[in-house]
């Protein structure tokens, strides 16, 4: 009897390990593939996607990622419900610990400062990053909210928990989801390979660092979500917008 139980547990553990790797690869591939697919669909069916104003084209481009990521979050929610679990069990609504907040916000500050160093070369006032108006305010909120909630739920709360559930240690819980997070940003390749590498590689590293902040926060996701929002809704949104002002129509 003990042998049967042991064999069942080993089989379940093996399945969980295979499943978490499949999930990591799927998230890393589905996000950019979905973005590119929607990009082609909108380009072929919406006039403004290719011939609209700079602002229209940028907002439509931003919507590609929003559609894909919110759809994936919905799919994860359904999968968790099917298992008898919820976002709450993953720490999505948990406020973490004070040192998780310090670490997450410090990482966001370093990332924002790194992005701001380009503003001088581009002749963009630094204040624009923190006090956007009109169109830029809408774009910042779209980018920041989607990235903060969807990407943290998918790559930190869900994927890191899946690796923990499969029996992997904290190193693998941080490393693999971080790499998948960077791969997921391959959807930015239509901004050029330099832009893709400039975003995907640091994003993978930053994702790993935020994964580190997620763990000591007792898997509370709120500090990391807030940090991610601040990072993406400030200087980064301007840097993503800039290529649209230079690209030929």
Description:
- By secondary structure, this protein is mainly alpha-helical.
- It has helices spanning 2-45, 48-51, 54-83, 98-116, 119-122, 127-130, 134-165, 170-184, 193-214, 222-246.
- The protein has one domain.
- It contains ten helices and no strands.
- The radius of gyration is 19 Å and the shape is globular.
Layout of strands and helices, then pairs:
Elements: H1 2-45, H2 48-51, H3 54-83, H4 98-116, H5 119-122, H6 127-130, H7 134-165, H8 170-184, H9 193-214, H10 222-246
- The count of strands amounts to 0
Contiguous low-pLDDT stretches (5 residues minimum) are none
What Rg do the Cα atoms give?
A: 19 Å
Give the helix/strand class: mainly alpha
The helix tally amounts to: 10
Tell me the span between the first and last alpha carbons.
Answer: 70 Å
| SSE topology string | HHHHHHHHHH
Mean pLDDT: 89
Major β-sheet profile: none
Oligomeric nature of the chains: single chain
- SS strand fraction: under 5%
| Helical residue percent band | over 70%
Approximate shape: globular
The total number of structural domains is 1
